[in-house]
Design brief:
Blueprint: H1 2-23, E1 27-28, E2 31-32, H2 38-44, H3 49-65, H4 73-91, H5 103-125, H6 136-165
Antiparallel strand pairs: 1-2
């Protein structure tokens, strides 16, 4: 299990580095696509909510430490995503081998659609109303499309790590 957690940690650090160095500078319609919020969903669909929540929080904290975002706010969004998807993962919904091909992209789209809203609302509740700039609707739609496209590859990677790490539901 230690080897699997080490692989998960390394994969998460690489994902955050990709988010910061390559994905964040590329804006689609003026919007930053946040793949670090898709990662906890993908991990939750493997069946272990605890691993997904901790990883989502740590990925968000790592991202926030290197961006202008309020510290740990992206981590809170990661935890919310993991906790929301946890029951789905335990029931096998979104399982790449057992569900219809469109289920995982639909869950990715839902995550991409709701995560910016959670981020902005949580920011406003913590005294950062300045996060509400630009068009929230465009931010939600762009992230939904990007997460729908990336959901299957991310979930396949998460499934591989879960199987090798020993925390998958199987």
């Amino acid at each position: 299990m230690t080897r699997g957690l080490l692989a998960l940690a390394l994969t998460t650090v690489i994902l955050v580095a990709l988010q910061l160095a390559a994905i964040s500078p590329l804006r689609v319609g003026g919007v930053v696509v946040m793949v670090i919020w898709l990662w906890p969903l993908s991990l939750s669909l493997t069946g272990d909510t605890r691993v997904a929540a901790v990883t989502g929080f740590l990925a968000g904290v790592l991202f926030d430490a290197h961006s202008l975002a309020p510290f740990a706010l992206s981590g809170v969004v990661g935890v919310v995503v993991a906790l929301a998807a946890g029951p789905l993962g335990r029931e096998g919904v979104g399982d790449l081998d057992g569900a219809a091909w469109w289920v995982t992209p639909a869950l990715g789209a839902a995550t991409g659609f709701m995560s910016p809203l959670v981020y902005v609302v949580a920011g406003a509740l913590t005294g950062h109303p300045d996060l509400w700039r630009g068009n929230l609707g465009v931010m939600m739609v762009v992230n939904a499309v990007a997460c729908a496209v990336l959901a299957r590859p991310f979930t396949r990677l998460a499934q591989y790590l879960a199987n090798s790490g020993g925390w998958s539901r199987a």
